[in-house]
Every structure is written in structure tokens, then in C-alpha cells.
Amino acid sequence: MRQKGNAGLGKKLLYPPVSTNKRNGVEMAKVKIGVNGYGVIGKRVADAVALQDDMELVGISDVVADWRVKMAQRKGYTVYCSVSDPKQIETMKQAGVNVAGTLEGLLRNGALDVVVDCAPGGFGVKSKETLYDKYGAKAIFEGGEKHEIAGLSFVCQCNYNEALEKAEKGNKYCRVVSCNTTAGCRIFHALYSNFKVPKARMFLVRRATDPVKGDSKGIMNTVVPSRLPSHHAPDVKTVIHDAIPDLYSAAVMGSHTMYHFHLYDITLGQEVTREDVVNALKNEPRICFVNTKDGVMGLGAIIEISRDMGLPRGDIYTIPVWEDFITVIGKKEVLIAAACPNENNVVPENVDAIRALTRIETDWKKSLEKTDKALRVPKTLY
Amino acid sequence: MRQKGNAGLGKKLLYPPVSTNKRNGVEMAKVKIGVNGYGVIGKRVADAVALQDDMELVGISDVVADWRVKMAQRKGYTVYCSVSDPKQIETMKQAGVNVAGTLEGLLRNGALDVVVDCAPGGFGVKSKETLYDKYGAKAIFEGGEKHEIAGLSFVCQCNYNEALEKAEKGNKYCRVVSCNTTAGCRIFHALYSNFKVPKARMFLVRRATDPVKGDSKGIMNTVVPSRLPSHHAPDVKTVIHDAIPDLYSAAVMGSHTMYHFHLYDITLGQEVTREDVVNALKNEPRICFVNTKDGVMGLGAIIEISRDMGLPRGDIYTIPVWEDFITVIGKKEVLIAAACPNENNVVPENVDAIRALTRIETDWKKSLEKTDKALRVPKTLY
Amino acid sequence: MRQKGNAGLGKKLLYPPVSTNKRNGVEMAKVKIGVNGYGVIGKRVADAVALQDDMELVGISDVVADWRVKMAQRKGYTVYCSVSDPKQIETMKQAGVNVAGTLEGLLRNGALDVVVDCAPGGFGVKSKETLYDKYGAKAIFEGGEKHEIAGLSFVCQCNYNEALEKAEKGNKYCRVVSCNTTAGCRIFHALYSNFKVPKARMFLVRRATDPVKGDSKGIMNTVVPSRLPSHHAPDVKTVIHDAIPDLYSAAVMGSHTMYHFHLYDITLGQEVTREDVVNALKNEPRICFVNTKDGVMGLGAIIEISRDMGLPRGDIYTIPVWEDFITVIGKKEVLIAAACPNENNVVPENVDAIRALTRIETDWKKSLEKTDKALRVPKTLY
Amino acid sequence: MRQKGNAGLGKKLLYPPVSTNKRNGVEMAKVKIGVNGYGVIGKRVADAVALQDDMELVGISDVVADWRVKMAQRKGYTVYCSVSDPKQIETMKQAGVNVAGTLEGLLRNGALDVVVDCAPGGFGVKSKETLYDKYGAKAIFEGGEKHEIAGLSFVCQCNYNEALEKAEKGNKYCRVVSCNTTAGCRIFHALYSNFKVPKARMFLVRRATDPVKGDSKGIMNTVVPSRLPSHHAPDVKTVIHDAIPDLYSAAVMGSHTMYHFHLYDITLGQEVTREDVVNALKNEPRICFVNTKDGVMGLGAIIEISRDMGLPRGDIYTIPVWEDFITVIGKKEVLIAAACPNENNVVPENVDAIRALTRIETDWKKSLEKTDKALRVPKTLY
Fold first, then answer.
1. Nearest residue on chain D to C290, alpha-carbon basis
2. What ipTM was assigned to the predicted interfaces of this complex?
3. Cβ-count burial of B4 within 10 angstroms (0-12 exposed, 13-18 middle, 19+ buried)?
4. Is residue A22 over pLDDT 80?
């Protein structure tokens, strides 16, 4: 719920009030959403929900009262406390945050149709047990949680229908997978839906931490490998299941703060030309192209382009693939290099996951297009 | 000039068409502006000019046709070639840029009232000689050029009147000083205009290069000092002249890409309380406060806040000062720590410099307020 | 104690067996030393002690059994467990370390004359209470502990005599101050012992974490200020007491892993020429010069020079000052830029502190020279 | 030639004078070596040559006189000017370097049997034409030059015999391949010599620049891909020829300064157990193991271990492979993660290349062992 009279930054609302949601000319009740955890993902999901005409952002909840939560309040978001601890609420109030109540209070009163749980990884399990299960609330978890928390891992263009079917049978939980898994699923979907993919290897150079966390944590002047092979390939399988029978991944952490770098070595089920692969990627939603011939030599340029797009926070939601690096070895093996905008590429997936879980939209393409229009997800970057 | 039918990103214009400029109810001709050099500063100045109701962005000029210039075109800006070399123009056209002509052509035709020269440091001298002098055009230079190029170095709140007076006498050139000098002038102005400042030392930890340039240049895992003492104090004096008789600076380059860090050690001309200093800074335009108690521990948090503000590219234009670090030693010495948003804090200064140079506004406060309103320069960050 | 038959790396002992210690032709018993905590400082102190002919390294103690401790063992150092917990000892043994006993066992048996406590900051307090006090052992603490732990903070050239005097009165504890404080004390001593220093300001750009810790912690692409003013000036005063009446410091953490950068703004008690200052610094022990005209532009070059010196780990122990940056403002104010080799500049201080605390050498210059000869502390870098 | 009376650092020679070279009891003339270019590789090759009892370092040549060359002189190396330009020689002399003559003079007088050309990439071609060809000198080039410069690319354990055979036929040139290619060749040799390797993919996260160059260049907070596929696989083929028929590589530059990171995805020609692969790597020269269970989590720990080894500059020459990351997928595919000590792993190769090119040793294993003993190349790291 937006508070009246709070005009956000300056005199202008960055996000205009959501309009009435009409479907087939009939005015529909909006799905009521709460976002629990107002961090890197949570604040973006909150903004994204607020932009949808079939959703209403009832409020956000958190446990602290630093600049982040103060900005939420300034934007006009109603702030709740994630925990039902009076001391915590009092602490937040004394720090200057107008706490409207607790997440549990919202759930008890049936004020929320769906909670999007964007708390740090691992917290979701506890909230599921103590809150969502207890009050019978639908909930969406993020990639920091394990697949088992929901039994359903989601990437819109891969398995929206699976989510719909499970929801019909009473499933109340959905897990939006991590940024890396989401990016991999989009790339893989472009290829296995066109050519079959019997085998694939993915290699990731992960960013070390988020820019805002760089003030207190990170890694320095190093490369740190994950356990080999990494968990990314198994995580992709929670979404695409058996679409790629022989799938492995390796990952290292690099000494940078924004955007993961991905390299794919994919063996296709049929012979292709380079043009076939280019077209498959070009036609896939939420993938876009960059080129070194346009001066896009690394992540730095992509991030600058992202900022120049003018979207909030420089978010682009889509996966930039280096078009001029797409390489076909022999006739069936493809090399692809991509950037993964780790802060935001899962944001539209959360919006779609809400629609699938609540079944307010039963056509995945319509949901995807509606989300992309509302968020202004770009088809091309420049 | 905005091209018709070019709707920018998606279907929405990020920057709506400028409205008619009325002063005292009288419709005024807008000042016609060209921006030469569409890099980190140029692209921001172009956007800022396009937002002013008393200015018209005729076009931008550059010499390359990479993603940057393609984005300019996509925004609806008319693109010119900075040089009058047919080969260069042809190269740009073949790369997909619709080159409308040359900067020299614009000047020859009297299409520009003012050129804002945002070409890399040192190019300005040549352009001044071969273009601006030749065609009698007014020009604004950036801090990469020396004071002598214009004989007038500018920070709005310090010496708008000096610029007005010189313009009245026929001066056609103005230099907007560097981000560091601009930040220093704002901080110093807050203090010398209130308490006198007989002596000051400033120490800077500069960012090494811009994020977009980080793909190909920079420094790594080091600190690199400038010659000691650094040029910053003498540069501040080109703006504030003798306001601080004993002024020196030292600077190092740090291994980071965004925002300079500034530390000031200022001896005041009178005894003060800490509150006096806080108030002086609070009342100074284009300075704002951050606090460690709100979780703002370093540049990372300030940059994240900047992005969360929702302004284009995460620009904030104002100088964040750590309020809870303001320290008074004894009764006359003050320590101040500040961040300098190096990509954008000079942007509003360019807008004001245009007004001073063309004398379309003769009250510095009105210009400053008009600029800040158009750019949505925030008074507070969160 | 060096174990027989363990020849260190390859077939060569990196550090040859210590020879008999003769003073005035009389063979003296060597001071028996244990080093508790084998981290960045501890491993260096152990090596340094092993090189002194008036000291015997009885062993090192730690609580883990990773590659660090395995290297200690391979060097021939006897390894003890810092804690008297049988489980911990068993864990270390199972990881392949031949644990010879416990630190407490050594103390109980009077096997140690001095413990150099190089455990992480804060652990010293507990060890003092439960071990050193209990067994009446002399102990040296590092700069991570507070002054109060020993009541004596030490930098050889500043207050060796104070340490001697307190030792004579029964004092058993000494704190070698941090790398930054040590560097500051050396610089300040050069100046206050020659010219008096009524006022000084020091500004530090600290390294964020040690290279080896960069795999798991650090900061990224940022500058993070310490509380303003920083604790460094008060810490310097624990060593130099009232030598500089008006002394303040400020510090930030930079995004690099090796060597702090220091800037000093020092007001002298008398008029000087630049040559006076250069000579004062040139004649001061454990300070050396670098020059930008020799291509030493930043910390990177100094670190490379350090490595090229061929000393173990690239340690140089001395404070590089940029000679061509030494600047005299007016006649009494001096600007100095220096690098602080944070991993190793306190190492010789530990050796000297042992001598002062045990009074085996009562002339500070002789101790300093003896240490510097044994460690090959360079007078010049290139 | 070592200059008499120049005692290097302090009073101790870091590298003791080379002893007489006896082979089979017969005193042999030593091969006379000049090193052209005293940078990151050149200074290490010079030191390595000076340690061999069958070689004599006649001198080093360079074109500048900064701290690097001053340290060479201080070490006792005779310094020559790389070019025969009197002005350049004068400049070096005035900067304080005692220039003994020119590289051309040495060649003209037949003072050198072999020049090791460690000048920056690309300079070798010119020197070959104007100096080595002209004076009929044997020369070794580094990996910055193309294969064609020598027609022979060299890694000791892969093709020493090829170098011997070509030398017998009069070949005078040899190219020691880059650090990355050298590392790849060692890893691949371990596998193809044991199991055959029909197919392999290698992925590299390169360091961006050398630490010493980090003061003025580098990349910042980014990942920058090379053209895809990268040149590394073709370069490996210049050494191992058709040993791996299907070989491709991809590379990115990471935001760190030391050690490349390598990931190998290798398909073997026969079924293997993990133990087979571990043993093959364990038995391969110039490869060693690290383990995460010993706390070696990333490049930072390996670099710290390297420093702790006590070898000059922290050089280790060998390729650290994460033993506990070695993974067999199915029965024939192997994943391997390794670090590449880019500053020094080619140094022993240069020594071996001299022996092969001059045929003073015709058994590759004897050369390798002799080199490794002289350089103290470690078999294990801790």
C-alpha cells in the first residue's frame, strides 16, 4: 500500500500509483503482495511488484532500520517488522522508521496473498515453518534457498506450466532460482528447445560480493574456485529436469563486484550453422546481444550501458550475450560468452512466479510480456 | 534538436520534450547548445541541458560510433561529427550512426549559442583555436583543461557573479572545474562564507579510472601518490581566489573506480562549536549528509544509495559529507570527510555556467535552484 | 629448538643453525623464546628470532594444522598447541602435525624466557590472565592488543630505554605497537629529535586485509573511512608520550592488500630547509628513500623492489619515504609521503623488545644494529 | 660476468659465484649467456642462469636506468645497453648506471653463445633481424613472440628432443612459450603421455597485469573476455603438435594481478579411475598439489605459500593443482583446476632451452633435474 501524501524523491513519484487491473474488461481484485527482506533482491522485487497492474504491494518487512529501510519508507512503502519481537519493533521505531506492524500480523489478518521471501539464504526455511505454513500463505523463495523448500524451482520461459500445474494441485510454494541458474536456464532453453542439447558444460566467473557489501566484505586480488564441479549444473536441473542429460559446471569467484561472467560449451543434438545459433538466442526472451565491435570489451562496458539505459538502479533484467563471440566448433559444439546481471535478472521471474503460483495468468508468454512491459525490460541494449 | 518519431528506449521518452521557456510571462528564445564529446561527462551534460526549459540541445558531436554514440542516437539526440574530416564521417556512418553534419558546420551556420566542450582533457585547446575562436562561439570547458583556456574557472555558489561580470565585458569562455575542485569549493564555501578560513589542507583518495574504462585501463592493488603537494589546491584557488590564503592539498589514486574520497583539515578564522559547522554545511547548496549510524560505512553504501535514488545513472550531483565524522579539534580546527561523485557533480555546474555565460539568468541562486529542480538534485539522500 | 635431521626446504636450511652467543668473549645462555600464534606476524617473528645468536626459538604454538603450521614443521620448528585441550591436540595430530606439547606445558616447565604472543588481536588478554600471569612468564604482545595489556608500548628507536627501566623495576610485559604506529613513530622520531614537533597530522590509506586473507575477506572497489579522528595518533602517543603535543590522525581503508600509505603534515618547532628534513630522515634508522625519478610511482613498485631484494617473503622491515616528495611549506611545515610494509616492519621491533625486556642488551643502538644485521634490514633499496 | 668487489645486497651475495663446471670430471667451458631485457621475466632468467654451473651470465642489457637496472648493477651484473644509440647510453650513464657497452658489441665480439631475449613482446622480431641474424648468434625468445620467430616452441618435458634434433640440423632459435601455454603443456603431457587425450578444453582466468605494472595500468572491477576461442590452444599445439587432436581454449582477464587460474576439461582416450589421474599428475615434473582441506582456498593462499617457501621473489616455478578438486566425470572425462605462477614458471624452461639449443645436455631429464636442483624447484609446497 502506498501511503498518501508521501511523494517519494523530490516532488515526483518514481513509480506512479498502480492503475486498476482490468482483465477482459472486468475489474479484478489485485493480488496482495508482501516482500519480506528489503535487500539487494527484495527492494527490486518490491519496486517491480508495485509496477504491476494486477498486483498490490501491501508492504515490505525487514528487521533493521538503516538507510535502506528509510529509503523504502520515503518511497511510500509501508514498513513492517519481519519478526514479532516487540524489542525489535521498538528499535526500528527509535531509529526513525514508522513500523506499521509485523509480517505475522499481516498473515494473521489475511492481508497477503503471497509473500515474496527475499531474506538472506537460509532464513526462508525458518519463516516457512513458523509463518507461511502456519497461516497457509503462499510464498516465493529465492535462489539462496534449496530446491526442497518449495519442491518447485522456476524460470518463466522453462517451466511456467509446471508451476501452474502444481499450483492447481494445491502447491503453495515456488522457488525463483539464483541469478546464475536463471541465466543458464535461459541460454540452455534457447538451445535445447531448438536443437536438443545432449551435453553441456558451463563455467562461471562469479562476482565476489554485491557493491554495497563491498564496504565490509569481499575477496581481494585473487581467484577463488568453488568445489569442482560446482552446484550450478545440479541447480539448473531443478528447473529444466532432463533436458540436458550430461550437464556439469565449474565456478570461480573473481575479484569484482558486479555481474557474473558465463562461458558455455554446449554440444547440440543436431548439426547447426552459426546463424542457427545466433537466431535461436536472438529469438529467446530475456536474452540480448552485445558486440566487441561496438566497443563492448568486458563487464565494465555492459554495466555502463546498463546505467545509460536509464532504468532504475541500472537494472536490465536480460542476459547480454557477446554476439561476435558465438562460435561453432565442428558442426555441433557451441561456445557462448555471456554476462549475468546478478542483482536484477531474477526480478521479472519473481513477478511471473507470483502469477503462476496464483494462477491469475495461465499463459506464460502473456505473463512474460506483461512483466517485461511493466519493467521496460529492453530487447536491445543500444 | 530532438528527432521526431524517435521514441528513445522502449516506447517511453526517458526525458520528455522540453517545454516552452517563459520568463516573466514572455516566451523567450531558448539558448541553443551543442555538446562536443559524448563521454562520461558529455552524455550527462547533454541530458541535463535537454531537461532545462531555457535551453535547447541542438545536438551532440563525437568522433567515434561505438555503443555510446548509438545510445545517443537512440535517445533522439542528433549526432554530429566533431571533426570536419569526410573519412571520419563516413566511418561513423558505416558503423550505423546517422551523422547529421559537423560541429564546424553548426558553428558556421550560427546554430549554436554555446558549445559545451566535454572532449578529453587537452583537446579543448585545439578546438578553441580552430573552431570557437574562429566562429566567435561561446564555449564551456571542463576541468581537464587548464584555467588559462578560459581565464575563468567556475563553481556556481562561489563565483557566478564573477562569471556574469566577465560575460558582460565580452568574455566568451568559462571553465567548469574538475569534480574534485568543485567538491572542494562547495565545502570551503560553506566554511569561509560563514567563519573565514585562513588555512586549509585537503587530502584526496582519488578513484583510479571510470567504471566503463576499467575494461582496459586502471591501476591494480596499489596506492599511487600524485606529486606532493598536488594541483588540487591551486586549482581551487582559480575559483575562490584568496578566500583561503594558506591552502595546500595532497592526493593519491586508490584502487577503486567510483567516487573520490576527500578529507579536509580546515582552520577557521573564529571559534566554533561542532553544531556551527554542521549547520554551515547543512545550509550549503549541493552538499548532503550521510551517517555511519545509518549503515553508511564507505563509498560502497553511498553508491548504492545513489543507485536507489532512481535518478538516471545513479547520479546525485551533490557532495555527501559524513555528518557523524565532523570533528572540531580545539576550537578552530575542523576535520571533514566527504565523498565526491566524480562522474556527475559537475553536471549542474555546466548548466549554471551556460546561464552565467549567456546572462539569461543574473541571480545565481535562481539558476542553482532552477538547475537542481530540473535535475532533481536531492537535498537529502535517504 | 630446531629438530635434528629436518633440513627445511629442499636440502638447504633457509636459516642456518644459530651459532653460540658470546658477549665480551663469555659464552652466554641464549634467551629461550616461544612464539604463540603462527600467522602473518608470528611466522616472521619466529624466523627472526631463529636468526639471532642471543636467542633460541624453542618452538611455535598454534591451534590449527593447515598449510601454515605444516610449513613451520617442515622448517624444523617444534610445534606446540596454544591451548591445553586434548581434543585440539588430537585434531592437529590427525591433520599431520607432530604436536610436541602445549604452550602451558612449556611455561610450566620454565622452558621459555619470553613468549611473543602473535595471536589475533584480543586473544592476548586471555592468554595473559590464564598463562603468562599464572606462570610468571615474560611476554611481548603485538599492536592488536591495547596499551593497557602491558602498560608499555615499544618502538626501538623511541623508547628502548623506557623499556629497560621498567624491566629493571620488574615489568614483565611489553607491547610492540602496530605497523602503522611503528612507522609513524620512526618518522616522527626523526623530526622531533632534530627539530621539535609541536603539531602533526597523519593521514593513512590502510591496506584492507592481508594477501593470504584475500581469499575469503576484504573490501571491494571502495574507500572505507575509520571513525574520525582515528586511533592512530593516540596510539603513537603511547610510545612517544608528549613529544608531539598536538597530534591527530585520520585513516581510510583502501581497496588494496599490501602496504599502508602514509601522508604526514608536520609542523616543526624551528625553521628548516628541505635539506635539513631530508638529512634527518636519511639518518634515521629503519627509514629508507624511494624516488619517482627512479620509476617508483606507487606501492606496486615498492613491493616489486621488496621482492627483488631477495629477503625472505620480500620483507624489508624499513619504511620507504618518497624522497622527491618531501616538501617544506613556508619554513616550518613539512609534507612527507611514505609506505608502510605492514606485514614485516614490526618484526625487528619484536627482536629488540625481547632484548629490552630481558635486559640482555642495554644499548638500544647495539640492539638495533644487531637485529638489522641478522635480518639484513637494508639501508637502501636499490 | 660478475664484477669483482660488488657485494650485492648488504655484505652478502644473494647468489654465490658460480663454480667450475665439470662434466664427467672434465672441466667444460661454460655457455656464455646474455639476457636482453631486464623486466619481469628477464631479471628472473638472469638470476637462474647465474645459478647454473654450466652457464655464465655475461651480462644483461636494457634501455632504461630506473630502479630495476640499478638493482641489476647492485647484484653484480654487468649492464649493457640493448641498443647501439650513444644518446641512450649517455642517458643511462647520467642516471647512474655504469653501462659496460652494447648488446651489439657483445655479439660482434663473440662474447655470447646465446642471447635470451626477454624484451617486451614484438621487439624480438626486430632484434632477430638486426642483431641475432646479423651476428649469427643463437637466441631464445619468450612467449610474447609468435611461433614463427623461431619455428620451434619449447616446453622441456614435451619436446626437448625436438629442440635437440633441430639444433643438430643448425637451428639457432628457440621460443619458450608463455606461462599459460607452458602450464597447459605440462598438465596435458601428464595425461596424453599416460592415457592419450583425444579432446580437451581449457579455460583461463588470466591475471590482468603484473603487480609492478599495477601502478599505471590494469583493469578494474571487471571481467574482460579474450576473443572466443582464445589463442592458447593453438599455442599449445606449437609444442605438443597433434597430441590432442580436438583442442580449444577460452580465456578472460580477471581483476587480479598475480597467477592465472586454469580449468581443464579433458577427455581421455581410455577409462581411468580418479587415482590414475592423481598419480599421473603427481609423477609429472613441475606440477605440485594443493588442497582445500589444508586451507588453500584460492590464489591468495598459494601466493602466500610461495612467499613462505623462501625462494627469491616467492617464485615456485611449478604448477599447483588442486588435488581434491580433480574430478572424473563418467569414466573418461577429467576436470582439473590449477594455478599458473605467471611470473616464473617459464624460468626453468629458459634454462633447459639453452641446454637444448647448445646441446650441452642431450638428456631432457638430466637437464630438467639439474635446473630444478639449481633453482630449488619444490616437489611439494608444504
1. D67
2. 0.92
3. exposed
4. no
